[in-house]
Amino acid sequence: MADINLKTHQAQFKNALYLESGRILEPFEIAYETYGRLNDTKDNVIVVCHALSGSHHAAGQYDGDTKSGWWDALIGSGKAIDTDRFFVICTNTIGSCFGTTGPTSQMYPSLDPYRLKFPVVTIKDMVKAQRLLLDRLGISKVHAVIGGSMGGMQALHYAVDFPNLATHIISLATTHATSAWAIAFNKVAAQSILADPNFEGGNYDIDAIRSQGLRGAAIGRMAGHISFLSPESMSVKFGRDYVSTDGLFDLFGKFQVERYLDYNGDNFPKWFDPLTFIYIIKAINIYDISRGHDTLESALQKTRSHLHLFGFKRDLLFLPTEMKAIDLAMNAIGKGEMSHYYLVDSDYGHDSFLVETKKFEGIIADILERK
Question: Three-state SS for 121?
């Protein structure tokens, strides 16, 4: 494996982070990883933004690991996001549970975790915190910001909130405002957690959940997995296959798709904190790039980056038409030459941006070649 110069960092901020809600986080921390090397002029930077359950570990492997980072197929030596050329930064978002300040973090000056006292954070807040990190690193301009799903939401916020930062904004499988359809899936997930008596109003034993799981979070994750796939991909992956060791007329016998949902659901709360899950899906639900503006068009007026908008056929969570709407809005305000819409032919569903990178990696590489 080629050396991608993977480094993990922990940045601590003593100054306050003023949130969109009017509340503050003080102090706060950001966990992040870097790949490649920063050049002398600091103009070879690419910011990668992660999705709901992602983390700052986007590429490469830690010592002793067998599993690579979540976008390893796209980031690395000679890959679309080429670490031989670019210095890549991926942060764990505010509100998450992988080293950045979130609901399980210490509520300074107390030694107790925030739990439900943690403030609601937004996608805008996540990007604001990342921008403070870039400032600390002395980076005032980046070649590109790229992300899919919730990561794509962050990328679009960079375009609106920090219009002079990035040359290219690459947003995949996302939307300009979360739809009622997506909010409904998230409602099932949140309510499943809240209704579980072992959630204990957010006062559960964190270590116990990591070892034993939480059934409510497992059920919520099942709903999420259904939205991440498509009917076509489920048919190909599972069909009507039945677990061979289960009796067809056993009431609790399972189809393969049921076993898949059980496996992924049961494991999820053991590595992703249930409180974090609730806070992150809240941020996704209230996401609207035009909040504070009269219209989507007015929100995009300040944009100076080239927008590259990727929709995926059979994505049922964030429809391709939602990405196309951003392109249409850019054209409506006379910025059509700065907007580029790509429709990826995929039957996989929403998670295609993670698992079918070969279908768009060439386009990404071509975009990053542009000045």
Answer: coil
Looking at every residue in the chain, the average pLDDT score rounds to: 97
How far is CA 86 from each of CA 48, 79, 131, 217, 288, rounded to the nearest angstrom? 12, 11, 18, 38, 31
Q: Which of 55, 96, 149, 305 is flagged as catalytic?
A: 149
- Strand blocks (E) in the chain: 7-13, 17-18, 24-25, 28-35, 45-49, 75-76, 81-82, 87-91, 142-148, 166-172, 306-312, 339-344
Domain 182-283 classification at class level: mainly alpha
pTM: 0.97
Residue in 157, 176, 306, 350 annotated catalytic: 350
Please tell me which residue in 315, 339, 346, 351 is annotated as part of the active site.
Answer: 315
With beta carbons less than 8 A apart as the criterion, state whether 274 and 214 touch: yes
Question: What is the topology classification, in CATH, of domain 7-178+287-369?
Answer: Rossmann fold (3.40.50)
Sequence ranges of the domains in the chain: 7-178+287-369, 182-283
* 3-class secondary structure, 117: helix
315 belongs to the catalytic site: yes
Q: What is the band of 371 on the pLDDT scale with cuts at 50, 70, 90?
A: confident
